[in-house]
Write a structure and sequence with these properties.
The protein is of the alpha/beta class and about 500 residues long. The chain has helices spanning about 5-25, 25-40, 45-50, 60-65, 70-80, 115-135, 165-170, 175, 185, 190-205, 215-230, 235, 250-260, 375-385, 425-435, 440-445, 460-470, 485-495, and strands at about 95-100, 105-110, 145, 155, 160, 180, 210, 240-245, 265-275, 275-280, 290, 295-305, 325-330, 340-350, 355-360, 390-400, 410-420, 455. Strands 6-3-7-8-9-10-11-15-14-13-12 form an 11-stranded mixed sheet. Strands 2-1-5-4 form a 4-stranded mixed sheet. A 3-stranded mixed sheet has the order 16-17-18, with helices on both faces.
């Protein structure tokens, strides 16, 4: 065992004990974070507007600070972007993480000197948790690759801005620099397809031990590697044994990955976002990711089925229940207050608090009142694939409200790597699994409001073509699992 491996194990043990201290005292930990946030932002413009000097309890906060999304907070954020200080948080941000997806263009999410370290520490601690639990630290001697956005940053009114993954690239610890790939030059390539080709050339003969990125884009990298070598990725990289991912559920990709790699590898799930690093998988044995309660973020939760009602109840960490679908609301040391990030979560454990990402509050199908969410379609597909030789590259689901004949239905657009022998039987298996997942969907089928789902096959690389057509190929961009309209569906129906 190398000195580096021994050092990693010692460090992992130290971090584990630190984590246990706050994880075993969740309510007290969150209360402390809450008080620190209010105190530090008391003299900001937002703090003055919302009378932070009179806030002593969470009840005070929920009465004085409404839940907002980016657009509702935009009048404050625009002032920060314009260069004003002490608006949402004391001073000015270090960076803006630039993202897309709002109705009025780009979003500028502030990153402060207080918030930035937690993005770095969380990613590090996820790996250290894995080392502590498994005892496996040999990979620290190999090469690591993180498929991410360009680290080239722009500047706006004296503040640097770029993709979160590109900003984070500037904070890679020195002890990892020698092991890290791709090179800075390759990372700076903007065009995603050109970048992946360059990464393949640069890593092909390296001792890769850790590979990290959003599954759909790592899949593209693996396919190009396999095409070049004419052998599984696991034979190209014999010491590759750890895949780190975030952004989407890995399960729909797992079978395809194992086929591309040629064997099983351990994986660590992360829950990062520009707004904060919320959770990471702290155990290979337990379901869900450890919610980071001591990272400068105060969490609130609103039941997803109540979210769009007037004045829904806002829950704190001590009030949540297992298995309930919650919209995640955050207040942070980057100056986001009662901010709806758009993700929904479910708790898989309350000791400690672990979550899974169940979907997006705006990504659902409820054309007939069924309110189907991302977790349900992913779970149904996984169940239908069990025991049969089917491999799927990507999929999305949309309602078909006005079919040319017959009852309406849910249309599943699936790009198969290996098709089922009987497509109709496979569709029926998914449908039966969906009916178990969602009682409202089952009622609609039983009541002959909907007919069983229909699968539309998508040609090879069809989803890549779609993402390219909307300017979102690669990086941190993700395909919606489902939508309540036909915008994505129309792209494939036109072809």
């Amino acid at each position: 065992m190398s000195v580096k491996s021994i050092g990693a194990k010692i460090f992992a043990n130290i971090i584990h004990h630190k984590t246990q201290k706050w994880a075993k005292n969740p309510v007290e930990t969150q209360q402390k974070v809450f008080q620190q946030l209010i105190e530090q932002a008391k003299h900001t413009q937002f703090g003055k507007d919302h009378k932070f000097d009179s806030i002593n309890t969470f009840e005070d906060f929920s009465n004085q600070v409404p839940v907002r999304d980016y657009e509702a907070l935009r009048n404050y954020i625009d002032r920060v972007v314009a260069g004003e200080a002490d608006i949402l948080w004391k001073g000015k941000p270090l960076y803006f993480a630039k993202t897309s997806g709002t109705t009025s263009g780009a979003k500028y999410i502030p990153l402060t000197k207080e918030s930035m370290p937690f993005h770095i520490e969380a990613a590090r601690n996820a790996i250290l948790s894995y080392i502590h639990e498994t005892g496996n630290a040999d990979f620290v001697n190999g090469k690591m690759i993180f498929l991410q956005g360009s680290p080239i940053l722009e500047e706006k009114n004296g503040i640097k801005l770029g993709r979160l993954s590109g900003i984070v690239a500037h904070f890679v610890p020195k002890y990892l620099q020698k092991n890290r790939l791709p090179s800075w030059e390759t990372n700076c390539i903007e065009d995603w397809e050109s970048k992946v080709n360059a990464v393949v050339e640069e890593t092909f003969n390296q001792n890769m031990a850790i590979i990290s990125g959003i599954p759909s884009w790592v899949q593209m990298y693996f396919e190009k590697l396999q095409q070049k070598a004419q052998k599984p990725v696991g034979e190209i990289f014999k010491n590759f044994n750890l895949f780190i991912y975030g952004g989407v559920n890995y399960e729909p990709y797992r079978a395809k990955f194992e086929n591309l790699i040629g064997r099983k590898v351990d994986s660590i799930e992360l829950f990062p976002a520009s707004e904060g690093f919320f959770a990471y998988q702290d155990s290979q044995k337990e379901k869900g990711m450890l919610l980071l309660l001591n990272s400068g973020i105060f969490y609130e939760f609103i039941k997803a089925d109540e979210f769009f009602t007037k004045n829904p109840k806002r829950y704190t960490i001590g009030e949540v229940e297992l298995g309930v679908n919650y919209a995640l609301i955050i207040s942070t040391n980057a100056g986001l207050w009662a901010y709806n990030i758009g993700d929904t979560v479910q708790f898989t454990s309350l000791k400690p608090y672990r979550v899974i990402v169940s979907g997006r509050i705006k990504h659902f199908i409820s054309a007939f009142g069924e309110h189907v969410i991302g977790k349900e379609v992913e779970s149904a597909l996984k169940e239908a694939m069990e025991g049969i030789n089917v491999t799927i590259n990507e999929f999305t689901v949309a309602p078909q409200i006005t079919p040319t004949e017959g009852l309406p239905y849910h249309e599943w657009f699936i790009e198969f790597e290996k098709e089922p022998e009987d497509l109709e039987a496979f569709a029926l298996k998914i449908d039966q699994a969906m009916r178990k997942q969602n009682v409202y969907y089952d009622d609609l089928i039983v009541g002959h409001v909907l007919r069983t789902l229909i699968i539309t096959k998508v040609s090879k690389n069809g989803f890549q073509e779609y993402m390219k057509s909307i300017g979102k190929l690669g990086g941190q961009n993700k395909l919606p699992r489902l939508s309540n309209d036909r915008k994505i569906a129309d792209f494939f129906n036109r072809k």
